[in-house]
C-alpha cells in the first residue's frame, strides 16, 4: 500500500511540475511549424516585397519626370507683366490633353512671393481661357528648373545657322579630266 501511495503521489507531483514547466511550449511548436512552412516555400513570400521596392523606385522617378515635364518655367511668362506667353498657353493645352492622372500643372517658383502669385494667377487665367474653369486641374509651385531654353532663342539660333550655310554649287568643268 505504501508503494501505491508513493507512486500516486509522485505522478501527481510530476503532473503539477510539468504544467508549470510547459510555459511557452505550445508557442514554440507553433513558431517551429510556421518557420518550417516559410522555409519550405522560400523565396516565394518575399518576391512580392522585392518587386514592390523596385516598382516604388520607378514610380518616384516617373513622378519626378512628370513634374519636370509639366513645369512652366521662366520663359513661359512675360518678364515685365508676368502674363503667360503664347508658348505658355500652348504648354498648358499640351498638359491638359496628356494622359489621365498626369494633368497637374507645376509653376516654377519666382524670385519673390508676388512673382510666384502672379504666375499662378496667369495660369488660372489661361485655364479659364482654355477650358472655362480656372480650377480644372491642380496648380503646384515647384522649385526645380526644368532643362530647356526659350523657343524664340532656339528659333534665332536655327535661323542664323540656316542663313550661314553657303549656296550649293558644282565645281567648274575642266575639260573631261
Descriptors for this entry?
mainly alpha; 177 residues; 59% helix; single chain; three-stranded parallel sheet
Could you give a short description of this structure?
Keywords: Signal. Residues 1-23 form the signal peptide. Helices cover 59% and strands 6% of the residues.
* Structure classification: mainly alpha
Order of helices and strands: HHHEHEHEH
Q: Which regions have little confidence, pLDDT < 50, spanning 5+ residues?
A: none
Q: Estimate percent helicity.
A: 55-70%
Terminal-residue CA separation: 140 Å
Mind summarizing the main beta sheet? 3 strands, parallel
- Shape descriptor reads elongated
Please tally the β strands and state the result.
3
Counted by DSSP, the helix tally is: 6
* Order of strands in the sheet with most strands: 1-2-3
Q: What would the average pLDDT be, to the nearest integer?
A: 84
Strand-residue fraction?
5-15%
Overall radius of gyration: 38 Å
Signal peptide: 1-23
Keywords: Signal
Walkthrough of the structure:
This protein is mostly helical. It has a domain at 59-161. It has 6 helices and 3 strands. The protein has helices spanning 2-21, 25-40, 44-69, 86-96, 113-131, 151-163; strands spanning 71-72, 105-108, 139-142. Strands 1-2-3 form a 3-stranded parallel β-sheet. It is elongated, with a radius of gyration of 38 Å. Keywords: Signal.
Task: Show the helix and strand layout.
Elements: H1 2-21, H2 25-40, H3 44-69, E1 71-72, H4 86-96, E2 105-108, H5 113-131, E3 139-142, H6 151-163
Parallel strand pairs: 1-2, 2-3
